[in-house]
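Structure (tokenized):
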């Protein structure tokens, strides 16, 4: 019984060490959550050409900002051609938005259509505010 309890405790503590908890949003800044499907990965990359410490979200001062994200996704074989295999893409997208507001939460959603990535910025009422543009893409 004790070995089982010890193993369970160690696994629980080890699992907690690997979790990265999200910080509490600063009410004097705007918070941007990142969302994509489970088969893709969307990472915060830069704000105003400056690298970020955490790739899971953006937190920016009010006003105009340029957000850059890294979006990795698979292109289904049916979008490539007969006898093809799925292809992994690694893309950078850039989004400019002039009106980030303090205390507001935004949602940056990303997806793809064939080889082309897309990303859209929404407010907390799910109104479309801006669209990102692709800056570069390549295979993984």
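Design, position by position:
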């Amino acid at each position: 019984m004790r070995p089982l309890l010890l193993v369970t405790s160690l696994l629980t503590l080890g699992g907690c060490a690997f979790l990265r908890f999200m910080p509490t949003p600063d009410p004097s800044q705007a918070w941007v959550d990142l969302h994509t499907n489970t088969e893709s990965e969307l990472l915060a990359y830069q704000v105003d050409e400056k690298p970020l410490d955490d790739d899971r979200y953006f937190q920016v001062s009010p006003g105009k900002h340029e957000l850059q994200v890294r979006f990795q996704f698979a292109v289904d074989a049916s979008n490539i051609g007969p006898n093809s295999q799925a292809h992994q893409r690694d893309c950078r997208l850039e989004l400019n938005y002039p009106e980030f507001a303090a205390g507001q939460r935004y949602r940056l959603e990303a997806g793809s259509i064939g080889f082309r990535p897309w990303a859209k910025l929404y407010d907390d009422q799910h109104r479309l505010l801006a669209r990102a543009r692709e800056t570069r893409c390549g295979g993984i």
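Reviewer-requested clarification: The two ends are 47 Å apart (CA to CA). The helical segments are 2-18.
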